[in-house]
Amino acid sequence: MTPDLEHFLRTALSLFVWLALLIAIFVPLERLAGRQRQSILRPHLFADLGYFFMTGLIPTLVLAMPMAVIGATGRALVPESYTLWIIALPIWIQILVALAIGEFGFYWGHRMMHEIPWLWRFHATHHEPQRMDWLINTRAHPVDIVFTRMFGLTLVNIAGFGSPGAGSGSLVPVIVLIIGTFWGFFIHANLNISLPWFEQLLSTPRFHHWHHSRDEQVNRNYASVLPIYDRLFGTLHLPAKAWPPSYGIAPQNRPEVLLDPDRQLPLPADAPPEANRPA
Question: How far apart are CA 170 and CA 158, in angstroms?
């Protein structure tokens, strides 16, 4: 078996394990504390499962070589004394600093996916759903995942925290990536929880659901973990106790229209009635 094939099979197996773990966590939670009544066997379920595996496999394979090069370049450019200082820090400090740095990169990569029309064409796939649940997290075009992940991981590597798979021996980027991935499933989940004090520090489902709003306050709440970046850069929208009234993409914000403003599109069909009934 070739090393590339072995890596592919290991990644695929890890995705099955991830999926089983996520189902065990989020399916019961959404049944017990869901904001909206939604069937587990919902429309587009199998398509979204396909996205789960596609966005898990393709970006991993595509990013392996670039991140190895970036990691090696970063280590060559950064003074050895700085690298040794980073390595000497307690692991929990390394993780917190790397998470903050990676989140800064993700924020701007994510914001660019919204504000540059040709990039929005790829990111719009993620905003198409008119219901929210944990599996929507991986409903995304591979270009979207590669672009935003590249922004975050590149800054983490430049800051001297190594690179997954680059032979640096550093687990910090891997841990940061795992935290960010799991948190992504959490903030997309259909969970009716409100933690006002918690939302000031970390993103929550209510925080991120506003990011998926169809008509009101679009292009807000770009951060995946740390809302402080939205607060600093003026993109925070989190009204007390309120949730967005609808999800999806309004006709005027569809990528076809932004790329060709003269194009006329019919109004999309509304979300199923049961998607808007409170639990």
Answer: 13
